[in-house]
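protien #1 (seq + structre)
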Amino acid sequence: TVPSMFAATATRRSTGAAARIWRFISTSTHRLTPDAGGEPARLRGVQEFLDFRRAHPEQCAIVVGALDEWPLLGPDWGPERLRDEHGDVEVPLEVSTGGADYRDAYREDAPRSRSRTFQADHLVRLGDFIDAFVLGGRDVPPGVSAYLAQHDLLARIPELGDACSPTPPQVGDGDDAQRERTMRRCWFGPRGTQTPLHRDPYHNVLAQAWGTKRVVCFPPSDEDKMYPFTANGFLRNTSEIEDVDDADESEFPLFVKAKRVTTTLNSGECLFMPAGTWHEVRATSASLSVSYWWGRRGTGPAGA
């Protein structure tokens, strides 16, 4: 059952103290203990990015400086402003209980349980979502989580789109025409939201606006060690591995041999992932990210 707190209109309003707390969370540079495999390279500027792409076509990289001009990173923006000025915008949420994710909805062998449920496209007011989950202004039943995932919120709220401008110049591999054709999607939610281990068919620049995310990546050439749902068409890009930090070696023996790269993505940074990169993403604080997708595997500078 979807939590009933969405039925009520938000009554909580911003305070200076809450704004200061959010600013502290969204700019935190706390890093988790890194996993084996180290962290990705750090790049600045388009030419350095393109040179890296040619030399290392399967490797991820942190891009710094690309969001320096974004108004969204400045003191005038935060989730409370988004709630107060655009709270009536209706958005589709992923609502889960008991740690469920989209795999529970689509895998045929998923155990059916009232304590572990997943519902996609649950429509609510943006303001109610921010109050209940992002700012924690209402009581939420234990084990319930909500995530505004893979939604073009910047098109729905043009002012927010303007605040996420300019587009990082690395998007589209520095090609203006390609950058204009890029798909753009938002990810917005509380600490603890997670996207399971999967791959996308496009190159991806994940721009971290607010908060922090932990991302674990594996190169496309390690697909034979990722254990995708081969018998399920919808989940064929998703791994059966529930948790990359606690995989059952007897069930997934090849996974331990995969080349892992782990990073904590901070506010103002971008993570580039080549098409086909397997990755798991976890929000380590309340978080707003923007994905820019373009091209496919084998496209890019010198065929990268």
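ok now protien #2
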Amino acid sequence: SMGGDVLALLWPVLWPALPVMLVPLVAILTRVWMSWVRQLDAVAAELSDASWDPVEGTSASPTPLPSIRDAVARHDLSVVVPAYNEEERLPLFMDEALAYLCKRRDETRGHGDFTFEVIVVDDGSTDGTKDVAARYARKYSGDVVRCLQLRRNCGKGAAVRRGALASRGKFVLFADADGATRFSDVDRLEDAMRSLGSEGVVAGSRAHLQSSAAVARRSALRNFLMHGFHALVRFVAGVRNVKDTQCGFKLFSRDAARMLFENCRLRRWAFDVELFYLAQRLSLPVKEVSVTWNEIPGSKVRMSGIASIALELFTCVVAYSFGIWQIHV
């Protein structure tokens, strides 16, 4: 065809010019990427300036946040619950978690005196999530249930980070608000933590369920996304010692939580992977423990999420490897 003939004539001229044409494009993409990387740092700094949101009946005004750097831990366990538009599911989680925690506190009264706090971090919700958290704070006191509201939606990773940095426990448990994991399985995580010498990270895991009926019933697309994500974690981020990085049920010793959450920058899908990447870089012990888990409908993972995850993991590895992001101990 005429078009093919024209292309054949021009190709010897265009081919040598391609590298020159690509240089400006690569430069533009690099500048956009660097701007995004710096923005992640800026958001991390912004979150560090947050204060406790006042809850009617528990405090009259915002109060300064406690810090995980405080010399003495005030509680045995801090439970950090990130919540974005969880008005319907949050009460079910809170009822289960508080029933377990209060029973454990009452059983140890006078011989061990187990104490705890639950930190609900409202990640800029547009529904009544904050009101639900406030209701529990009034019922159990503002010292037992604490409510922290981010000014805008920043992502689950940012919400967990903010809550963890304001925790007052000897150990910090991150638990998803959907209640997919049986809360009493925290016992299993604590047993595993003791086997690590009470220092490090214990990850709740659903890896033992990969051949279960629940997984078999998933759509082909969802299973494809799951395997694609696992491949990215292993071969891009180099995290091979944890089979299930995404289970929303993880226990950290206080020192491990401080080192990890003071350094992590990713805010959305891949923040869990960044935590394990940092744990490897910081030589923190990590153990994976099977937990009881139920399939919860309403997963928000989409095909486009794989591209986003790949970008975040690439950013994580490159930014830390080349010193763009510094790791502070």
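The longest strand covers residues 75-83.
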